[in-house]
Amino acid sequence: MIRFDRFPQGKHKAVTLSYDDGRDFDRRMVAIMNRHGVRGTFHLNSARLSSPGYVESAELADLFAGHEVSAHTVNHPFLSMSPPETIASETLNDRRELENLIGYPIRGMSYPFGSWNQEVVAILRATGMEYARTTQSSGLFDMPADFLVWKPTCHHREMLAYAQKLIDLQMRHTRMALLYVWGHSYEFDNHQNWQELEQFCRLIGSQTDIWFATNIEIVAYMQAVQRLRCSVSGQLVHNPSAIPVWFSVNGHQEVVQAGETKKLAHV
Ligand SMILES: [Zn+2]
To answer: Tens of pLDDT along 238-252?
Structure first.
């Protein structure tokens, strides 16, 4: 039996960080993450770029290299209390501005104030948004049923406990376990607890069985998993995507390269 239970390189565990608002404390945050190979996504409000206390437009590409720049609306409104025109323009115009600066399509966002409802989700879906993170912690390592209502595992105040929990996780029935941490870099400054971020990154960054990914890399990988096409016999798998996909067949690891059609052993 084919079982979709693996991230890239056959790993069962992944970690991603998700940080909002683009305050200048992101610089210190990125430096700590980079030292330990931890990766993540930075959700920016384009109208606030280059104003006092925020990151500069001109530094985005260098500062966030190896991470993901993502949307957070132009002006940080409560989307659940906004007319549809505002929901569409705030998200599309943020993407347009950030895309001009960063040079790749922006495919996701986080909800300002964690504010969303089903109408907001419908508009985001219609305008091509592929994921949106809420501020409601799930306490779980599960993939979301809908990436436009993506509940993180925890806020960073709990990240050390969850990192240990992920490390200790023994997967008797193997599956994909994702630790998704969210927050704001300025909170580390407000609480003077930058050492907790350092501790988290050192602990988790030293684990060789974890995939460190940006938010959109997780989404794109799961899309590639869903696009695998299998024969009825379970012997043939075709991967139409541009990235390789890992999975297991009766407990044996398999990988199907981008564009490949593969006859599986161990079926
Ligand atoms: Zn925000």
So the answer is: 999 999 999 999 989
CATH number, domain of 115, equals: 3.20.20.370
Calculate the average pLDDT of the chain. 97
3 occurs within a structural domain:
no
Are residues 140 and 237 both part of a single domain? Answer: no
Residues 246, 133 share a domain: no
Q: What is the tens place of the pLDDT at every residue in 61-72?
A: 999 999 999 999
Say how many Å lie between the CA of residue 112 and the centre of ligand 1: 4
Ligand 1 centroid vs 76 CA: distance in angstroms? Answer: 6
CA 45 to centroid of ligand 1, rounded, Å: 8
Question: What's the gap in Å between 184 CA and the centre of ligand 1?
Answer: 8
Residue 103 CA to ligand 1 center (angstroms) comes to 23
Calculate how far, in angstroms, residue 21's C-alpha sits from the geometric centre of ligand 1: 5
- Asked if 127 and 259 sit in the same domain, the reply is no
Quote the domain boundaries for residue 108.
11-215
Determine the pLDDT at residue 173: 67
User: Ligand 1: distance of its center to the CA of 189 in Å?
Assistant: 16
pLDDT above 80: residue 176: yes
Q: What is the pTM of this model?
A: 0.97
**Given the DSSP bridges, would you call strands 236-238 and 261-263 parallel, antiparallel or unpaired?**
antiparallel
132 C-alpha vs ligand 1 centroid, how far in Å?
13
